[in-house]
Design goal:
The protein folds into 2 domains: 166 residues, Rossmann fold; 186 residues, Dehydroquinate synthase-like, alpha domain. It is built from 14 helices and 11 strands. Strands 1-2-9-6-5-3-4 form a 7-stranded mixed sheet, sandwiched between helices. The chain has a two-stranded antiparallel ribbon with strand order 7-8. The longest helix is centred in the middle third of the chain and has 21 residues. The termini are far apart. The chain binds nicotinamide-adenine-dinucleotide and zinc ion. Zinc ion binds next to helix 11.
């Protein structure tokens, strides 16, 4: 598979990745190599990665952080910066971030700020990190409940995508990453959407080429609009309502939290419904979106009371400006429209449709 050139880095795929990595190490001869993992990628991904790494006589140190979004914090960064300095990391050291989006976002931020920036390479091991976090250069951490609020844009040296890591990724995290792939189809490529929704299962052998295609789509969108002024907003399809649903389920004691992609899947159905009313998405395509998503994602109960709070949460959406909620909607599959407005009545109607269709009581 051909490597994909992004703004400042290169994304390599499959068996080639270790050859690229080892060549890079040989050519740049870093003073030391630091590998950042979380508790899961330490157990599931590090052994096979070490078996492929050819570090010659360069010393390798492994730094482990606890897994999960709760640990994507500045406190954890402080621990990693301290470990780097205790082990004498210098400007010529290399950090390799081996993990999901938490490890690549946090590790990218740590590397970009330690000594005002040292080299790093991302090796995403979750589907979400492969298809979404791998391009665009967004690094950073959360501040309390504010996600990704502290960070810098920096792409690192290269991204190495080896889908065989996905063999140990829990099913719910596979499904979560798949939601972002579906989104890439909906905003940019109807054929890609059709292929994805006709997959029999999320087996790695089926996903290989599709992961590549997703990275191509995201890279095209990001490259055409590096400063997030216009086109890049289309990546937000499903995310206006999806983020509010995600935050709501996180903050409420009697509900199981939803993974990011699970919330985005609901957001995409709701925003596709709104698209039929606001920008002419055909009922036929809406039907395909709804059934395509619900083939994989389970129904989630969202009562009338939940809906009110979720709609209220929209005002905190980072992408808003001057107090209006703006949606990315679809004119057709593959043809999005940015900066669309929808009133609360229509949003309630979309929720009502979702509940009625899935036979969920709203009260
Ligand atoms: N930088 C970007 O552009 C961008 C884009 C999308 C998401 N993100 C960020 O990514 C994060 C979400 O990413 P995520 O879903 O990968 O979360 P994550 O890093 O928490 O990984 C999910 C879970 O899977 C485990 N895991 C990862 N790879 C594994 C493997 N191969 N085998 C077994 N377990 C494995 C992790 O330990 C974790 O428990 C969020 O913080 C989000 O903000 C960033
Ligand atoms: Zn997302």
């Amino acid at each position: 598979m051909e490597s994909i050139v992004t703004k400042d880095a290169v994304v390599h795929f499959n068996s080639e990745v270790y050859e690229k990595l080892n060549n890079y190490i040989k050519t740049t001869n870093p003073s030391k190599i630091f590998i950042l993992v979380d508790s899961n990628t330490h157990d599931y991904c590090l052994p096979s990665f070490m078996a492929e790494l050819n570090n010659g006589d360069i010393k390798v140190e492994v730094m482990e952080i606890p897994d999960g979004e709760d640990h994507k914090t500045i406190d954890i960064c402080t621990g990693v910066w301290e470990a780097l300095s205790q082990y004498y990391a210098d400007r010529k050291s290399l950090i390799i971030n081996l993990g999901g989006g938490v490890v690549t976002d946090l590790g990218g931020f740590v590397a970009s700020t330690y000594m005002r920036g040292i080299s790093y390479i991302n090796v995403p091991t979750s589907l979400l990190a492969m298809v979404d976090a791998s391009v665009g250069g967004k690094t950073g951490v959360d501040l309390g409940t504010l996600k990704n609020i502290v960070g810098v844009i920096s792409e690192g040296e290269m991204v190495l995508i080896d889908p065989s890591f996905l063999a140990t990724l829990p099913r719910n995290h596979m499904v979560s990453g798949y939601a972002e792939m579906l989104k890439h189809g909906l905003i940019r490529d109807k054929d890609y959407w059709n292929t994805l929704t006709h997959l029999e299962d999320l087996d790695i052998s089926h996903l290989n080429q599709l992961i590549y295609d997703s990275v191509v789509i995201k890279n095209k969108v990001v490259t055409e609009d590096p400063t997030e002024k216009g086109l890049r907003k289309i990546l937000n399809f499903g995310h206006t309502l999806g983020h509010a649903i995600e935050s709501y389920f996180l903050g409420i004691a009697d509900k199981e939290p939803l993974l990011h992609g699970e919330a985005i899947a609901i957001g995409m159905i709701l925003e596709a419904y709104i698209s039929t009313k606001v920008c002419g998405l055909s009922l036929e395509e809406f039907e395909s979106i709804k059934t395509g998503i619900l083939k994989t994602f389970s129904k989630v109960e969202i009562t009338n009371r939940d809906q009110e709070v979720i709609i209220d949460l929209l005002k905190y959406d980072k992408k808003n400006s001057h107090g209006t909620v703006k949606f990315v909607l679809l004119e057709t599959i593959g043809q999005p429209k940015i900066d669309c407005l929808a009133d609360n009545e229509l949003i309630f109607e979309a929720f009502k449709y979702y509940n009625t269709y899935l036979n969920i009581s709203s009260s």
